[in-house]
Structures are given as structure tokens and as C-alpha cells.
From TrEMBL:
It comes from the Eukaryota. This is Uncharacterized protein.
Amino acid sequence: KHRSDQRTREAHYTNMHASWRLQLPALTNAYLTWKHNSSLNVAQTSAHKFQVTAVHVFELDYFHDITQQHEEVANVSLLHVGLLGCSPTAPTVAISLQCLELYHQLRRRQSSFSIQAFTKVLCAIHNVNYTQTFRDQFSITFNIYLTILRSVWSQVDMALGRTDPDWRLRHGCPPCTFEVSQPNECPLYPTSLKAMDGNNSAKHMANAGSADLRIFPSRYMIPPDQVDVFKDDIR
């Protein structure tokens, strides 16, 4: 008899993201090791193997053997061979990092190219039927892939001394932050003037994604709680 999952979508996402968050430091180190082709000197005495379905751009391996060391997270073992799983605990499907990077660059150049469209392309290349499950698995893997990249960027910013929250504002765009310096010039008022579409696009998405409680760590956007401090100020 089939037993339905009684957990809400919000609870499911919360538990999943918490599990990924605990693994993030180890995943970041494993990704950097793979990225720079560093050799792994690990003992094989306590290792065991597990199998995943490995999805590459032009290859599909249903029974890909993965060597896992004692007390090593499964996704760390996958990252050592250039794969990333769709689950934080017991992944059965893994996407190649080259495939994830390809989609990442496609989205950066064409933001309307959806995950559904890309997974349908992969299914066509591999001559398999498209399923919503595969789309969801790819989405989970791609999200944690982006989280790993943001963790790497945070380490780079820390090494370069860019930890100040206002660093991007002060150094991001010299023309936008230019201030009058000549004695015969009048100060600009307002100092900076911004305009947008009145948030019409954002209003359509106001109720979307309410089950995901994560906050995107942007280096450009200011968190809503900091903006709301000035909501009653009128000039």
C-alpha cells in the first residue's frame, strides 16, 4: 500500500536545505580540489562503493561506481570524480559538473532558457523519456552547485579583503558613485537618482516560492529589512 508523505513542502525544503548547509564546507573544498585537478592521496582500505546514474551532456551511465571513504559524505565522493548528487544524504542520480557549468553559462546569456527546456534537451540526447522527476532532480543539483560557487566567491572576497557590506557599493561603478570635487561645481541633489519599472515584474512573483524560506546572499541587492527602515521617510 502506497503511503503518502505527510510533510509539507516547506518542511521538506527546510530539512533538505539544512542537510546541504551542513555539508557545504566539505563540498566547497572537494569542488576546489576537482576544479584545480589536485591529486587525492587517500587510503583505500576502508573504502566501499556505491552506484549512481551519472548524467553527462552526451553520456548517460546507469551504473556508475563511486568510491567512498570511511565517514566521507556521499556528495564529496561524487565531487572527487566531477559529479554532484541530487540528494544530500543518499543520491541515486548525479549530474556532471561540466553539464551544470554548461547550463549555468547558458542561463547567464539567455535567462529565459529554463531548467525544463534543458532537461528535455538532455533527455533527447540520451534517447530517454522526459519526466518531471528528472527536472526536479536537476533543479536541486543546480541549486546546490550555485551555492558552492557562492561559497567559493565568499572565500575569494575574504582573501581580497572585500568583506565590508558596502564594498560593492563603493567600488562597483565609479561613474554612478562619482562625487563633485571641483570648487566651482555645485553639489548634486539628489546625489544619485535611480529608476525602475515600479516593481510590476516583481509583483507578479509576490506569492511565488513562499515555501522556500532561504534568503539569497546577493552582493548587489539590499535585504528587505534594511530597506524597510526608511519606508516611512517622505521628502
